[in-house]
Amino acid sequence: MNQWAAMLGDLPPSAQRVLARANRISLPRGCTARLRHTRLRQALCHAATVRATYRALAPAAQAALHQLRTQRGGISPLALTRAYGPVRSWRQLAADPRPQTLSEQLVLLGWLLPRPAAPRHPPRYV
Length: 126
What we know:
The chain contains eight helices and two strands; from the N terminus they run H-H-H-H-H-H-H-H-E-E. The protein has 126 residues and is mainly alpha-helical. The protein has a two-stranded antiparallel sheet with strand order 1-2. The model has no long low-confidence stretch (mean pLDDT 90).
């Protein structure tokens, strides 16, 4: 869960705000990056919250999570689109935070996060 919390902190502020809005996490106006990250981490990365949210998911979403957890190093955007549907941009998700595909649902829960490209590593979702 520490890596997950660190990845939440690495997201751009607009993406953090979208996740907070989708998960009904209160963010005060003009809050600092540290406060935004702390509130996201406390709300999303708590073990009891994760268990309750997982149990509330549809069986298809649970199966998708199980498959994604077994993939070492994440999944490429193209493979994610083929398997679970496309993910809209953060701007489009901010305008309409209702998930349209299974992959968007996982992104809005904060469980599937985009990782930028690095040297010798293409962009992936982890």
